């Protein structure tokens, strides 16, 4: 850090659009914390002169305001020339001038409006960079281009604005490559929502200021918008400390912005950006679909385009790189294996009571019961609950399914594949090999145990937390089934029981970020799973009333986001009816 704690002392900085908003934040940061000589320009002469006076009074750096219309080439050249004339050098150029017009579809946007916004938001960056670079090469300086996340993930009714921001990001990449040989760094700042006069104006023009502001705040991880001072300090960091950073090289993308509740964060982004948007997940771009229309369009109307979706590198390793069903590409081989698995599944021919009403974590017993059904179909044998071999198998499944969710990181960052894996050529596309059957059996254990177990656990958790609903389920079971055991023949008559199961699957969908098991790749075990869920759920609710332990806090219903969305560990009391 420079003398006196000033981080960019005596460096010469140009900021376009510097009289208000993020540009003002940059001027303040470089003058106050950087100790820099800042030349800034804008069309707002009154605001510019006022900020110039304030900065020169407060110091420790200094400021010079030059009126400028960045859509005019001669005005930008004038700013560059006057800066070099006064200070003899340029160390940093911050391209910031721009605007966000009100919401407007492409049908309502004229060609002239589109060209005009391009000139202001994008062409001005090109012109300023072109005229400043001969001087920046001498000082091995840097360019900072202010862009926006919408240039990556899109935004509804803003095609012109999104185009300009995407162009800024691409311009940054291109300049970074070209100018690296001169030691000039070029970076982009794509902030989230920063509270600026532009945001204030857009929210007031929306017709629902409060809702728009709230949506902007909820879309941020901290639950608030950033300040112009915070945005300015990011620019100062890039200029003063980030001396090995150049170009927009994605490392984390939006991964860190997702936080601990990615589904809630995506729901907030949906409100801001619409039903279809793109996330940068490390080195991958992933499209997020929301709403019936978008999902139907992808998985039904254009199902063949998504039929070969691959889940990720680590899951590929676990399921044999397409030798089973889950990772197999769409085609004759996949269809034959699915028919085989479906045929096996169609051939499907209590320990809870031992708790005596005491608090118990039911997850283990439910998972063991579900796994035993899969085991009886795949190897023709059922195991005792306490069988050591079976317990080890269950523990292995639980451990792998927990880690696979975090293992998706390997797909996002291919360089982490430090152990090379050789893909074997499939000898017979239309034939089943022993290896195919082995991987399909493994998949049946994973898919058949994890998904059914967690759906049943969610169902029991919500029954425990909603005793009125549980009571209605039991009343229907008593009326339809009586004292006999629930059977599949009762299914059509138990409408409320079925409705509760469907509602659980809706509000706690296990595979919320996957299209792999939808459309043409619908799971061959879906019908078996629905039958299992119905029989387990109805039998348990017929025999027991589930309540939370007395004095215990209410269980957490947010879920643990891994390969599937599973409930946090919880205890309940099973009271025999």
UniProtKB/TrEMBL annotation:
UniProt entry tagged with the keyword Metal-binding: yes
A Pfam family recorded for this sequence: adh_short
MF (Gene Ontology): heme binding; iron ion binding; monooxygenase activity; oxidoreductase activity, acting on paired donors, with incorporation or reduction of molecular oxygen
Keyword Repeat applies: no
Keyword terms: Iron, Metal-binding, NADP, Oxidoreductase, Rhamnose metabolism
GO biological process, one term: rhamnose catabolic process
PANTHER family in the cross-refs: CYTOCHROME P450 2D6-LIKE, CYTOCHROME P450 508A4-RELATED
Family listed: Belongs to the short-chain dehydrogenases/reductases (SDR) family.
Protein name: Uncharacterized protein
